Amino acid sequence: MGAVGSAAQTANGPPAAKVSIGIPVYNGAQFLAASLESLLAQTYEDIEFVISDNGSTDGTEAICREFAARDGRIRYLRADTNRGASWNYRNVVQQTSGPYFKWATHDDLLAPTYIERCVEVLDAAPAGVALVYPRTRIIDGDGNVVRDYDDNLDIRAKTPHERLRLLVGNIVMANASFGLIRRTALARSRLLDKFPSADYVMMAEFALFGEFWEIPEFLFFRREHEAMSRKANPSATEAAEWFEPGSSKNATGREFWRLFVEHLRSIHHARLDPVEKAKCYAGFLGVWTRRYRRAMVDEIFVGRQGRHRRSTTPQGS
């Protein structure tokens, strides 16, 4: 797995913030201001914010510049063209340096104590905890609460193979990937790779590194709306373009097969002893085939080209 680059530590200036929040965005003007307001309203203040704008063509740039002028903790970076979600999500990691990192989207909201509570828990946790995340409430386009969502990813098993088995067996929505993550865990992952549902592979790599701790408070408000990525890009080719522009020509529609191979690749590259690695392979193969065997068969023999996981593993917006 490749190492994660980071922004240089400030040698002569003020010390780097403890928490880095990266906000990748492309044409997110509809909800961006509300999202940024919720970030700036955090009770914990030792935060650096980096907004990476993927060449937006709507009002995103003006909103970002307005907020950057308001708060000196915000850095606004803008690409000339849309380089895809994979590049953008990686860029905000590479442009930050705090020991704790969080991705924030342009449309979700955080309770004011989100970062404060996550820092408290992660500070008190052993180094073997890769990330912490709070409970999730689903909201609609108007900000109304639709339902509470149980992520069921409080994974405190002590061995990589147990954690991987629990993650693959339980994950549906990847909300925990928007929790507070140790940079050491990021550095041992591929981050968000260039294929649909790469966030699930990234989560598996985090689980190989360490535990996931859930904070039993509803502090994350995930917005579901018609313009969110998984609804706006429902086909295999559209999803491929969202992650990596120009990659749709190679899209096969066999998303579960690709994810199967990529999980195996993650295990292969993990820094584990041979016995533990063998247990990871065995545990993964068992739970994956039980959960996704039918979808994989459909991808071969039925020739379905749609996004199967819309009903099983919907991606983050």
UniProtKB/TrEMBL annotation:
SUPFAM superfamilies: Nucleotide-diphospho-sugar transferases (SSF53448)
Pfam families named in the record: Glycos_transf_2 (PF00535)
A GO MF label: transferase activity
Domain Glycosyltransferase 2-like: 20-186
Keywords from the named record: Transferase
The protein's name in its UniProt record: Glycosyl transferase family 2
